[in-house]
Amino acid sequence: MLSEFSLIDRYFAQRARTGARRATLGIGDDCALIAPAAGEMLAVSTDMLVEGRHFFPDVDPHALGHKALAVNLSDLAAMGAQPLGFTLAFALPKPDENWLAAFSAGMFELAERHDCELMGGDTTAGPLNLCLTVFGSVRQDVALRRDTAQTGDDIWVSGTPGDARAGLAAIRGEWPHAAIDSTDAAYFRRALEYPQPQVALGLALRGVARAALDISDGLAGDLRHILTRSHVNADIDVDALPLSDALARLPRELQLQCALAGGDDYELCFTAAPQQREAVAAAAQQAGVRVTRIGTITSRDTASQAAHEQPDAAPTMTWRDRAGTPLNLTLQGFDHFHAD
Prior knowledge:
Elements lengths: L3 H14 L5 E3 L7 E2 L6 E10 L10 H19 L2 E11 L4 H17 L3 E9 L3 E10 L15 E5 L4 H10 L9 H12 L5 H6 L6 E4 L4 H12 L2 E5 L7 H4 L3 H10 L6 E5 L4 H11 L3 E8 L6 H5 L7 E4 L5 E2 L13
Parallel strand pairs: 4-5, 9-12
Antiparallel strand pairs: 1-2, 3-6, 4-6, 7-10, 7-11, 8-10, 9-11, 12-13
Helix pairs in contact: 1-3, 2-3, 4-5
EC number: 2.7.4.16
Organism: Paraburkholderia bannensis
Catalytic activity: thiamine phosphate + ATP = thiamine diphosphate + ADP
């Protein structure tokens, strides 16, 4: 039977030692030592994945290994940070060797693709729970943040948000009235289980985009974070939302619910000055990623009495169709304490 240390060595430490070494001191000591490049700062993010909340108990362990790291790399992408390495702490009900082999394979395949080294971690017995901390490197003056959007900025989104939410619905059988064929269902499920962190796009947008974040809890909910931190509002052209062919085959109300409030896409939402449209297109081409302009950052009326009395009032998002007609949409992003 595997012990804690043989488990770590067989499925994680040995694989980590075969890759590029970014840590000055990595696995095998009490702490990892990391030295970012001269003039750069460490970007650090932690995400926890809990069975039953973030993934199903019967999820393919290869997909789970991929996604556990992907959601963390997506945070680095949103900051325009170059991945350096990560730590992994997890609780496991029992040391199942087949599960561990598939899980570690999914994780290291993605780690090697982004030259991101496993630098340490911990494991224990318990209900399945994964916690990863990822480290990246970025110059402070080009880091993409949430509090730097400006009035007049274009609002952009990468990829086709909404596919992951449709995958969740397909697995749950939520939409019996919406005919989803087996090919579309498989596409949606892969979008949910194998999100692709937009690291290359984040790096290409440094010095081009103003504000950015990744879409983990739904476009409507996540964009609100930029608006809140930057003290601005937004106008969104709902008809400009980029939809996959599979999502476009669903009824319109489901398309909008998935694309605007679905979550789990791990695409990037960012703002940039209108003068940067060609530069944004060039960055997307360099990264091999589709980007779509979906709206505009608008100002808050800071001179109004209400704004003066409530400087931290919630921002306003105005939804419009292509003709500019306002739409009445009620959308709610994912909430980790109130999600169904």
